[in-house]
Amino acid sequence: MMLRCEYHVDADLRFLSNLDMMHLMERALRRARIPYALSEGFNPHLKMSLGTVLPVGLWGTREYFDLELKSPMKPEEFMSSLNAALPPAMGLNDVRVIENHSPALMKVINSAAYSFVMDTPTPVLEEVSRELLSASELIVRSRGKKKGQNKDLRGGILKIAVNQAQEFVIMELWVSTGEPVNVRYDELIELLEQHGINPSSLKDVYRSGNYILSNAAFSTPLEKVK
Amino acid sequence: MKDKLFREVLPRVSKPARYTGGEVNMIQKDWDQAEVKMVFAFPDVYEIGMSHIGGKILYGLINERTPHLMERSFAPWPDMEAVMREEGIPLYALESFRPLSDFDVVGFSLQYELSITNVLNMLDLAGIPLRSSDRNNDHPLIIAGGPVVFNPEPFAEFFDAFQVGDGEDMLPEFLDVVGRNRGDNRGELLLKLAAIEGVYIPALYEPAYNEDGTLQDIRPRGEGIPARVRKRVVKSLDEAYYPDAPIVPYMNIVHDRAVLEVMRGCQRGCRFCQAGMVYRPLRERSLGTLRKQAEQQLCSSGYEEISLASLSTLDYSGVDSLVRDLVKQYGDQGIGVSLPSLRVDAFSIDLANEVQKVRKTTLTLAPEAGSQRMRDIINKNVTEEQLLGAAEAAFKSGWLAVKLYFMIGLPYEEEADLDAILELLKKVREVGQRFSRRPVEIRASIACFVPKAHTPFQWQPMNSPEELEAKRRFMTRYRQKNIKLSFHDYRTSSLEGVIARGDRRLGAVIYQAWQEGCKFDGWSEYFSYDRWMEAFRRCDIEPDFYTEREKPRSERFAWDIINTGINRPYLWREAEKAKEAALTHDCRMEGCTGCGICPRFAVELDIKETDLLSVERETFILDEEPVD
User: Fold this and answer.
1) CA dist., res. B87 & res. B90, Å (int)
2) Quick one: DSSP state of residue A211?
3) Which of the residue ranges A37-51, B257-271, B419-433, B568-582 would you say has the lowest mean pLDDT?
4) How far apart are CA B545 and CA B530, in angstroms?
């Protein structure tokens, strides 16, 4: 039986690496006595696949993993057992049963949203958004594969929203994480700085979602399951 | 504080998960409700400190069983230290993020002589005066425990108290006394603490020296202070506290697994081994206790592996049943069992095969010396036949690499003994070529012998750095295919040797070395021999005085202030037997060897799972010398 899980990682756990996160999950599954399936072979391991890697230093509100169980368990029961075993700074939001041979999360997730929390930004963020979306190219220094080279983010910036909270403004950018361009959050920070946002007004960054973009619509990996 | 740390500090340093706390099973007691507040301070990085079993025991014990609280702190890596100093962040505890200076007691775990510079650095980062004499009632008590404090004298000026021996009873008692006497000034409190068995208060003792620089005596400064401090012993491990729910770190640590302590102490009597002498007598846990502890540890941690720890786990009388039970019970959940140290014999390999059904990568064995003569000198009861038998069993069952531990610079060593190491490695390789289907790799890790306090070799001179380096060159004069030698840094060992048998006068050198910038001396990338030598010069102290002299039988040693229960005539007799390469048997097999621990401490060997003790259990003590 395959389960697809959506979870959140709070700011207290923002410094964990992807490997740390895998260990944490595995150990929590054991503590919760979840009947997880093990792979065959000399070195049996959990059949769990994480969606995309949450970069060290970021926290996330909607992250995903798929897990295979060797015996069935109700999603609600799975969720409450595992949540009781996870550290307080982490938890499942939702769990659904998926088909056994569903395509891997890593293959289907092709976009993500990053939220930049700012206080009293000097430029008006709505204007920055318009600037970004109307530019023909947006050049930053690449942090990814071609480190240090110029990289045009324009094709990877998909949507921008600005939300006014009580003391902060949150600018949420939807970006592509595969083709045509893999946009990283640290490259976005450079982009914002280029457009007049003072780094000291940037209070926090988190990943607010991972999406499957098709036919100009963003759906979460759970919505796609329905 | 926490907010600033998470937003401004940790994003700038490597491995930030070292500094965040909040792990699964962390215990944070209510600060205002707790009686005495203590922080367990480990003078090395988080990954090493969190792997330490003694710390896990004390942390659970104090927090679960006493009205006191214990938090944790580790040495920040130099990049973090730099940011902390720049931002004015004092060294803090991982539970409450409070600075160390808020606590009543700061207790350092001293596992290694050279970690002392990190102790000083941590105190400095916490804004606490480094020397005991510069502290008063407003400062925490700075104390230490661990194997290194069996010779506490080199560190005397930095600590208010040492706790020598097993901590399970001693530490709660110590904190109770601290809690009951809050109003006392520091001097009054220290006097009360000195009355606790196992506690050594260095400020209450005065050393005197002879004209030739040797120690004359260490005398109590007043009435009612014990002339010698007896180490503390827990009599029954079955009754001793052991944590059910160890902290599960987020980051990968050195020993990242659940751990059972199957026994404490060792009766093998290897003459170089300090732990084998000072942690006597051997006390085992029963199978029933261990099975229960395994279940609790695994349930509460979710670990994928459980390790059976002790000085010589294959000697545990119930090891065979325990390993088979654990594999049977947990194997199908993907949980493995690991044996940290193997004995050199075929039985050990069988058991190793039992637990390592998969991934037979490297098997580690410790013959310690290459020639039979040398193994007899150090009383390592292993024959070449046993070693080759073990290697054969290993290669036959699919292991592809064997790692062997040796020491050079042992007493009475000759070139032939060094060559014997190389010969032995060749023989192991030949066994591999004959019995393995694939090419095998033989690795030798070669350490420099450091004579330690409270061992039969405490009178022995240590090889000079030049001799050790010459021996290394001698051994690497030709290369051999598929045999890899790696040598410990001889200069690190030399310095370790000085401190291991040092006295109170070394305090000045240690302080100077720290001022010169020494820290993380156990890490090759930070160790600076030259800076240490400069510190010795400035303090006008000859390091060779401590290491290279052959010491007469009657010489008073700084560590004689600690009574380990092992008497000096026994150690001397062992030293004499070493000279003749004569063996001393294990007292479990053939009766008492007269080390003195059982009659003097009113304890006994506690063997749980076999009846091989049909031998006469009458114990005796060799004649006492005045120094005892």
Assistant:
1) 9
2) E
3) A37-51
4) 18
pLDDT of B612 over the 60 cut: no
- Which range, of A96-105, B61-70, B507-516, averages the lowest pLDDT? A96-105
If DSSP codes are grouped into helix, strand and coil, which group holds residue A178? coil
As a whole number of angstroms, the distance between CA A98 and CA A78 comes to 14
CA atoms of B72 and B46, how far apart (whole Å): 10
Q: Which residues of A touch B24 (CB under 8 A)?
A: 24, 27-28, 31, 87
Please give the average per-residue pLDDT across B307-330, as a whole number: 93
Backbone angles phi, psi at B232, to 5 degrees: -95, 140
Whether the CB of A84 is below 8 Å from some CB of chain B: the reply is: no
pLDDT of residue B398: 87
Which positions in chain B touch A29 (Cβ < 8 Å)?
Answer: 302
Question: Which residue type sits at A77?
Answer: E
Q: Does A193 touch chain B (CB under 8 A)?
A: no
**Per-residue pLDDT reduced to its tens digit, A131-184:** 999 999 999 999 887 888 999 999 999 999 999 887 889 999 999 998 789 999
- pLDDT level of residue B627 (50, 70, 90 thresholds): very low
SS (H, E, C) B380-398: CCCCHHHHHHHHHHHHHCC
The number of C-alpha atoms within 13 Å of B585 and in the hemisphere containing its C-beta is 7
pLDDT at B603: 87
Can you tell me the distance from the alpha carbon of A34 to that of A24, in angstroms, rounded to the nearest whole number? 14
Q: Is pLDDT above 60 for B518?
A: yes
Residues A172, A190: Cα–Cα separation, whole Å: 15
Q: How far is B359 from chain A (nearest CA, A)?
A: 7
Which two tokens mark A59? 């926290």
- pTM beyond 0.90: the answer is yes
Q: Among candidates A35, A39, A20, A89, which has minimal Cα distance to A60? A: A89
Indicate which of A18, A26, A31, A33 best probes the interface with B, i.e. most B CBs within 10 Å of its own CB. Answer: A31
| Distance separating alpha carbons of residues B555 and B568, to the nearest angstrom | 11
Q: What mean pLDDT is predicted for residues B312-316?
A: 92
* A157-164 and A169-176 strand pairing: antiparallel
Question: Above 80 in pLDDT, residue B357?
Answer: no
**CB–CB of A75/A2 below 8 Å?**
no
Coil/strand/helix, residue A131: helix
Q: Is B609 on the interface with A (CB under 8 A)?
A: no
B28 CB neighbour count, 10 Å cutoff: 14
Give every CB contact of residue B52 below 8 A, 6+ residues apart in sequence.
B42, B109, B111
- Dihedral sign of CA atoms B430, B435, B438, B441 in order: negative
Query: Which residues in chain B have their CB less than 8 angstroms from residue A17's CB?
Result: 17, 251
Q: Name the β-bridge partners of A90.
A: A9
- Nearest-CB residue to B17 (from A16, A29, A87): A16
Residue B628: predicted pLDDT? 41
Give the other-Cβ count within 10 Å of B208's Cβ. Answer: 10
Hey, are the CB atoms on A57 and B11 less than 8 Å from each other? Answer: yes
Residue B359 has pLDDT above 60, yes or no: no
B581 inside 8 A of chain A by CB: no
Q: Stretch B420-432: mean pLDDT, rounded?
A: 96
- From A24's Cα to the closest Cα of chain B, the distance in A is 7
User: Contact, B176 vs B148, CB < 8 A?
Assistant: no
